[in-house]
Amino acid sequence: MVEPQSLEKLISEFASLPGIGHKTARRLAYHMLSRSRERVVSLSESLLAAAEKVKPCSVCHVYTEVDPCPLCSSRAGAKIICVVEKSSDILPFENAGIYKGLYHVLGGVLSPLDGVGPEALYIPQLVDRVRKENISEVILALGSSPEADSTALLIDCLLEDTNVTRTRLARGIPMGSDLEFIDEITMLRAFESRVAL
Ligand SMILES: [Zn+2]
What is the pLDDT of residue 189? Predict the structure, then answer.
């Protein structure tokens, strides 16, 4: 099918997003053409504003518009750090209202096949925080995949010479599932029955 160049470009932009196949990308692009100019402008402005204003917090690396983020500011002095793979993984904790401690986003998990080694993640910064902020417990909430397990293992080793208690969420989170989409009840159970590493 021959499409105008700018439409083709829009389709390929949509198709580059996670979870969007070529068919859906085309449907979205055609939908945009039928939208009013105001709504298209509003969408593109929202995209730009989010990309420009939202940055990782310099302390915990959760996405924020103010640095340090409101979580770091309002919970300063807390002695528990919950370690997650990506910023959106804190949502099930915050939505369930089960946790009032600090967070630390790693920015991924170890994945040697994709070239993601420890130096590509915020692991040294975590070790630093545990020492400097006198943290008493580190909860590893990294989901359940072999990569997450080896990341947890590495962090456990690096924290071995500190007095910090290392725990992880109880099993019960389905294998390979994205923490971000875990329902509140499952998260609550996994959190409350967390186990020592
Ligand atoms: Zn923060």
Answer: 79
DSSP string, 65-102: SSSS-HHHHHTTT--EEEEESSGGGGHHHHHHT---SE
Q: Which residues surround ligand 1, an ion (CB under 5 A)?
A: 57, 59-60, 68-69, 72
| Ligand 1 centroid, distance to 105 Cα (angstroms) | 9
CB atoms within 10 A of CB 50: 11
For the record, the structure tokens of 114 come out as 């994709």
Domains and CATH numbers, the chain: 5-53 (1.10.8.420), 56-196 (3.40.1360.10)
Between the CA of 16 and the centroid of ligand 1 the distance, in Å, is: 29
Q: Biggest alpha carbon distance in the chain?
A: 64
Is residue 109 scored above 80 in pLDDT?
yes
Q: What is the DSSP letter of 119?
A: G
Going from the C-alpha of 139 to that of each of 44, 45, 115, 134, the distances in angstroms are 38, 38, 26, 15
Predicted TM-score of the model (pTM): 0.83
